[in-house]
Amino acid sequence: MSDRIRSGNRWLLGAGLALAFAGAAVAEEIVITDHENREIRLDAPASRIVTIPMPLASGVIALSGGADRLVGLNPLSLTAIREGILGKIFPDAVNIPDAVTGTDFVPNVEALAAVNPDLVVQWAGRGPEIVDPIVNAGLNTLLIKYGTEELTRQYMTMVATAIGKPERITELVGWRDVVQHEIEAKVARIPQEERPNVLYLGRSLSDITAAGDNGSYSSWYIALAGGRNAAAELDGTSSINREQIAQWDPEVILLNSFEPNLDVNWVYDDPILSLTKAAQQHRVYKMPLGGYRWDPPSQESPLTWMWLAELLHPELFDYDLRAEMTKAYKTLYNYQLTEADIDGIIWTAQQGDSLGYDQFAAQ
Amino acid sequence: MIGLTNAVVRFGNRCVLDQLSFSAERGRSLAILGPNGRGKTTALRAMLGFQALAAGTRTAPAVVGYVPQYASSNQSYKVLDAVVMGRAAGLGLFGQPSARDIATARDALEQVGALRFAKERFDRLSGGERQLVLLARALATGSKVLVLDEPGSALDLNNQARLLRLLSALRAPRDRAIVFTTHDPNHALAAADDALLMLPDGPALFGPVAETIVPELLERLYGVPMRLVNLIGEDGTGQNAVLPAFAGRRAA
Amino acid sequence: MSTQIDDGGAIASRWRPWSHTGFAFASFGVALMGAILVSLCVGRYSVSALTALHILGEAIVHPGQAIGSMDQRIVLLVRAPRVVIAAMAGAALATAGVALQGVFRNPLVSPEVLGISQGAAFGGALAITMGIWGVPLLGIVFVGGLSALIAVGMLARINGQTEILTVILSGMVVGSLFSACVSLLQFIADPNSSLPAIVYWLMGSFATATWDRVLVSAPGLLLGIALLWALRFRLNVLSLDDSEARSLGARPDQERWLVFVLVALIVGCQVAVSGIVGWVGLVIPHAARLIVGHDHRRLLPATALLGATFMVGVDTLARTLTAAEIPLGVLTAIIGAPAFALLLRRHFKDREAT
C-alpha cells in the first residue's frame, strides 16, 4: 500500500527470533503477523486491549507499563492479580471487566463489544470456536501460542508492536535474552552428575502431577538453571503417585504457585515425601507469585531463572535477587518494591528456612 | 379357609366384581370358571390379596400357597433352591433356611413326584415339570390353603391328567382348602367339590359341582352348546364329562 | 391309580451340593490372597518381595511398632491402605451390583441406573468446589447419593406402589439431572484448583488412599456388605415376580427400598474415597453367576470375593505399569467391556440351551 511505502522506515525485529515479522510503519499503520500467520493491521497503537489467555493480562500491563490499556481480561487473570502484588501496584486493575470470557476461553461477544476494544488477544491452535465469534464481530484478533521461551518472546514482541512501544521489546524481551545467556554460560561448565534432580509438581492437592521434558516450560528452565528434570521419563503432564516420587527421590522439589492452600509443609508432613532427599535437605520451594505466577512463562521469567539458579548452584551464581527484582519491577511496572513486598512474593514467611533461602533475606 | 364376601372391584367406571361372595373351606376344593374378561383373574388376585377391594372383605390365612400359571421368566435357580423359597414366610427378613426347611422342601418335591429334578435348573425343565415344582413350592410354605392359577391351561393332556390326579390326591386327606381357576369344566368335575361360575349375564353362581357343572349353566357361561356325556373311566367305572358341541366331525 | 410318579431313586448318592462350589470358593479365596500379596510386593518403588513380606509380617506380629524406613512406609502406609480400600471397594461395588440385578430381575443394571453414583458425584464435586475435603467431603458425598435415591423414590411412587420400570426411568432422569449439575460445577470451578480436583476425582483412583480414609469408609462399606449378606436368601425371593414374592410372605416394595438404601450407603462410601469406578458392579456379578449359579446365598460371597480380587488386580496395574498413574476408569473399561461381551455371549448361549 502506498501509505506504507510513503512512511519510509521499516523495523526489523530482534535477531534471536524464529519467525519473521512483517514490518510496521511506526507513524502510520501497524502490521503484525500472529502465531497462526494471520495479519493484523492497526491504524494506530492499540489502547483498548482485551486479553483472554491468562498470562497476557499481566503481560500487557507490563509491556504498557500500566493497566490503563487493559479493558478486559480472563477471570483467572483477575484472580492472580488479586492474589499477587499486581493488585497492590495497580489498584484499579481489579475493576477491569472479566465477563468478556469464561474461564474456558470461550468469548462472550456482547461483553467484548461493550468494552469496545481495538485489539483482542486469544489463543491460537485451540480451534476456531473461540476465535470466530470475535473475528465475526469485526474486532482485531491477535492469536498467540504459548509454552516455550521462543513463543513467549514472539508474542511479547507482537504486543509491544501493537501498542506502539517497540522500545519495550529491548527492555523486556532483550532482557530475557541477556539473562538466559548469562546463566547458560555458567551452567555449561557444570558436569552432569552435579546437576541436581529437580521435581516440579504442577498439582499437589487434588492429584499429583508432573511433566516430562517435551512441551514443559518448567523442564526447560530447570535445565537452564543447571538442574535435571526428575520426571523426564513422563510423556507430557501426568498424574503420579507418591511411590513414584519416592522412586525418583528428587534432590529439589518445586511446588506450584497455583494452589493457594499449598505450602512446603505439605511435603514435610507427608510420611513418604518427607523421606526424599529434597525434604531431608530442606530443598523444597514453592514457586513465587509476583506480577504473575513464576511457574509458567511470563514477563517476570528471568527472575524465575535467577531465583532457581541461585537455589540450585549458589556457589556459581551471585545474583542479588532482591536487587534484581527491584530493578525489574521498576522497568516492568514503574513500581518501587518494598522489602515486605519481596518477602511476600518469594514466600519468605513460609519457606524462609529452606536451604539457600538465607541468600534472599533482606539485609 | 379362603374367600371373598360381598367383594366389589372397579377399574375406572367398569365394575369387574360386583358383590361377589364365595369361599373354600378347609377340606373343600373350589374351581372357578368363567370366560375371559369376566373377572376370573381379578377374583383370584383379590382372593390372594394382590387386588384392593373397593368394598367387601377378604378372608385368607397369613400365607397362601400360591401356584402361578407361569414362573418368573428368569428363574435360573436349581429346583430345590426354588422350592426352599416357599419357606420364606417363616424366616423373616434376614432369616436363612435351616436343615429342617430344606427337608420340608424335599418332602414337598417328593409329594408332587419331582424329587428327581432337585438339582436341575428350573428353567431347563418342561412346562409340566415346572408346574409341579411351583406346586411343591406352594406346599412347602406349609399353608393350609392352595391357590392355583389355571393350572392345566398350558399343559398337554398327559400332564393335565397327572396334575388332576395330584390335585385329587391333595384333596383326599381333607385338611386343606384348594382353589383353582380353569377354562375346562372337566377339571372341576375331576378335582373340585364346589364351583364358582362367573356368569356374563348376571351375578356369579356358587355351589356344589353337581349343581353347577351342568350343561345349561355352562352354556350360559360360555355361550357355546355343552353336552354331558358318560364315559368309562380308567378304572372301569362310569364317569361324567362335559363337552362343548362346537368341535368334532359329523358322524356318518 | 397311581397318584405319584416314581422317584427314580438314588438321589441321595448324588447329593453333594458343596463339592463344586467348595472348590470354587477356595479358589476365590486363594486368588484374593494372592492378589493382595502380589500388590503389596510390587510398585514403582523397588522393594524386594521378601522385604515386603517381612515388613508385612512384622507389622502383623508387632502392630504398635514405629514405621521408620522408606521401605516400611511404602509397604505399610502407601500400598497397604490402597490394597485394603481397593479390595473393600471392589467387594462392595460387586455386591451392590448383584443385589440390584437381583431385585431388578435384570442383569444389566448397576448403581448408575438408580442415579446414586451421579448423586454421589455431585455431592463430591460440590464439596470440592466449596473447598471442603476430608471427612466432611465423605459426608456430603453420601448425602448426595442418598438424595438421588430419595428423588428417585419420590418420582417413581405412583399410587403408593413403585413399579420396577418406573424406578429405572426415574433413575435415568435423576442421574441425568445430577450429571448435568456436575458439568455445571465443572464449568464454574476454578481451573487451577477445583476443576482438576473434580475431574481427577470423577475419573476414579485409589491413589489418595490412607489409613484415615480406610477408617472413614470401612464402617459404611462393611455394614452395607454385611446387611446385604444377611439378605442373601431374601434376595432370591425378591427376584421373583411381585405377586409370587408377596405370596411367599415378602413385601417386595419395602424390601426393595431397603436394598436400595444399602446400595446407596455402599456406593456413597466408595465414591467418597475413590471417585467413580464403573464396570465392576456390572461385570463381576455375571462372572460369579457363571461359576456358582444364581442362588444369592452362594452368589453374594462369590461376587464379593471376585470383585475384591478384580479391583486389587486392576489397581495394581494402574499404579505400576507406567510412571504415570493410569486412570482406574480407563482400565476397568478396557478390561471390563470385552469381558462383559464374552460373558454376555456365554449367558445367551446358556439361555439358548434351556
What does this structure look like?
The complex is a heterotrimer of chains A (about 375), B (about 250) and C (about 350). Chain A is an alpha/beta fold and about 375 residues long. Chain A folds into 2 domains: about 1-165, Rossmann fold (3-Layer(aba) Sandwich); about 175-360, Rossmann fold (3-Layer(aba) Sandwich). Helix content of chain A is about 35%, strand content about 15%. Chain A has 16 helices and 12 strands. In chain A, the strands form 4 sheets. In chain A, strands 4-3-5-6 form a 4-stranded parallel β-sheet. A 4-stranded parallel β-sheet of chain A has the order 9-7-11-12. Chain B has helices spanning about 40-50, 80-85, 100-110, 125-140, 155-170, 185-190, 210, 215-220; strands at about 1-10, 15-25, 30-35, 55-60, 65, 145-150, 175-180, 195, 205-210, 225-230, 240-245. In chain B, a hairpin with a 5-residue loop joins strand 10 (about 225-230) and strand 11 (about 240-245). Chain C starts with 16 loop residues before the first helix and ends with a helix. Classes of the chains: A alpha/beta (about 375), B alpha/beta (about 250), C mainly alpha (about 350). Chains B and C meet through helix 3 and helix 5 of B and helix 9 and helix 10 of C.
Give a quick rundown of the structure.
The complex is a heterotrimer of chains A (363), B (252) and C (354). Chain A is of the alpha/beta class.
The CATH architecture of chain C is Orthogonal Bundle
SSE string of chain C, helix = H, strand = E? HHHHHHHHHHHHHH
Measure the end-to-end span of chain C.
Answer: 33 Å
CATH homologous superfamily annotation of the largest domain in chain A: Nitrogenase molybdenum iron protein domain
Strand fraction of chain A equals 5-15%
What are the defining features of this structure?
heterotrimer, A: 363 residues, alpha/beta, Rossmann fold, four-stranded parallel sheet, disordered N terminus, B: 252 residues, six-stranded mixed sheet, 8 helices, 11 strands, 26% strand
